[in-house]
Amino acid sequence: MSNSVFIAILIILLLAWYLSFSATRLDRCHHRVETSWEHLDALLQRRAALALEIARNSDLDPATEMILTSSAYQSREANIGDREDAETSLSESLKFLHHSALQGEITISVGLINELTTLTDKIRTAIAIHLEAISAVRNLRQKLVFRFFHLAGRAKWPEKYHFEDDEL
Asked: I need a labelling partner for 50 at 20 to 30 A (CA). Which of 32, 94, 118, 123 fits?
């Protein structure tokens, strides 16, 4: 076996290893997007449940209670396409209630307010993690080697939802 054949085989093996390594890295990044979304989704579902608990256990006027309950149910039951508007609506309702409770206009249990504050902080963190994961996948997929060798396969581009930009 001549040196040029040996070098060619070595280069092909190194290229195959690099492509396999890169594809695995991209797959791990896609998995990270999925798991970060699942965690965020669980927190958003908990927030909707907490909103329903606040609506039932506070001295809200009937109109405010109905708006909060409606927003919470829409958030829990909406499909992903309609979820953006539902989550934004729930965020606005909860911000209004939190502000009203701080002003003393309505009475909400201190425990519920503290739980809402803690949950909101967790959601902010989960959103930041999810957006960072999306950014990592997009940056990888834009590189020439990933596009040329079609290393993403049939995986969809990760989506960013506009409610992730809401100020909670």
From this structure: 32
Per-residue confidence band for 129, with pLDDT thresholds at 50, 70 and 90: very high
Query: Whose CA is closest to 146, among 8, 35, 20?
Result: 20
What token pair was written down for 17? Answer: 């290893």
What CATH number does residue 74 fall under?
1.20.1440.20
Using CA of residue 167, residue 48, residue 88, residue 43, what is the dihedral sign?
positive
pTM (global) more than 0.70: yes
67-93 core/surface letters (b: 16 or more CB in 10 A; e: else): bbbebbebbbebeeeebeebbbbbbeb
| Burial state string for 128-164 with b = 16 or more CB within 10 A and e = fewer than 16 | ebbbebbebbeebbeeeebeeeebbeeeeebeebebb
The domain in which residue 131 lies consists of 3-165
Look at residue 106 and tell me whether its pLDDT is greater than 90: no
